[in-house]
Amino acid sequence: MKPGDRLMKHFLQFKDLRAEEYAYLFERTRIIKTRFKNYERYQPLADRTLAMIFEKASTRTRVSFEAGMYQMGGSVVHLTTGDSQLGRAEPIEDSARVISRMVDLVMIRTYEQAKIERFAAHSRVPVINGLTNEFHPCQILADIYTYIEHRGSIAGKVVAWVGDGNNMANTWLQAADILGFTVHVSTPEGYAVDPGVAGVARQDCWRVFDHPMDACAGADLVTTDVWTSMGYEAQNEERRKAFVDWCVDEDMMAAARPDALFMHCLPAHRGEEVAAEVIDGPQSVVWDEAENRMHVQKALMEYLLLGRIG
Ligand code: CP
Ligand code: NVA
Question: What is the pLDDT of residues 268-304, one digit of tens each?
Fold first, then answer.
């Protein structure tokens, strides 16, 4: 791919792709996951290289991208702030120019969304957001695929978001806007979703509730996340106090539909944002959700590098 190539796509926010592209990705995910489960070799990315740049910690994102790329026949280069010139103030634009001359695809986990946007603007190859302060699109891709696997289409459904108005919440809103479902958001005062950051076109794709129980009432899916995201650790103590009533417990799950699912992007803190009885209970699909990171990202990498198959 060359700069300016009209076919080159990045995945920096959920709204970078259209509903029909998501339908395609979910179908490719199903095919790719089935092949994997049947031990069928599928290596369309032979000789392709993915650079993974981590400025924050990760378990799932690293393992899912790295294992996924190897399974598809490619290879990976792993960089962190501490072991590269990124941590020594080399301009992000220069890093993008250099790295993207040597690899075929770049995944970045960093702080400000503006940083990944600047990298992408100077990259010759597609760039994937592996989490920023503002968004976590690969996670929501996996979450929605997991919902579809368990319950079918998410269109018209209600997703309850209980907790911080953070990167995950923003991305759920973008997904609701594109895929036609509604998010019921309940956050403590001072931690609301910023609609200007989430950037949704359809304002009726989300509703705000003061009480988390009201957000969960009748929901098809209840989901939450850590009270303190990476990069906000200095606020840990004040957040612990503010979020104490925003723990997804069995009462909240009972307020949701009887067949409601529970999701959490992980890592989780039992007894804080979620009760152990919920995350380890029968409605929880968190392990499928984590595994599906790898399957959806394999479909995403295939799409960004090869376009539509067949
Ligand atoms: N959910 C998620 O992105 O996990 P990691 O921080 O472990 O990558
Ligand atoms: N909101 C969390 C998600 C971790 C996967 C964070 O940004 O730390």
Answer: 999 999 999 999 999 999 999 999 999 999 999 999 9
Spatial separation of the C-alpha atoms in residues 23 and 180, rounded to whole Å: 13
Side by side, the strands of the sheet bearing 49-54 are 75-80, 49-54, 105-109, 127-129
Range list of β-strands (E), 176-256: 182-186, 206-208, 221-224
What domains lie within the chain, and their CATH numbers?
A: 14-136+292-306 (3.40.50.1370), 138-289 (3.40.50.1370)
> Residue whose CA is closest, atom 6 of ligand 2?
229
Q: How far is the CA of 72 from the centre of ligand 1 (A)?
A: 21
**Residue 3: predicted pLDDT:** 46
Whether 35 is a known active-site residue: answer no
Give per-residue pLDDT as tens, 53-110.
999 999 999 999 999 999 999 999 999 999 999 999 999 999 999 999 999 999 999 9
Q: Specify whether the CB–CB gap between 95 and 118 falls below 8 A.
A: no
Cβ atoms 296, 138 nearer than 8 A: yes
Distance in Å, CA 208 to ligand 2 centroid: 21
How far is Cα of residue 245 from the mean position of the Cα atoms in its chain? 25
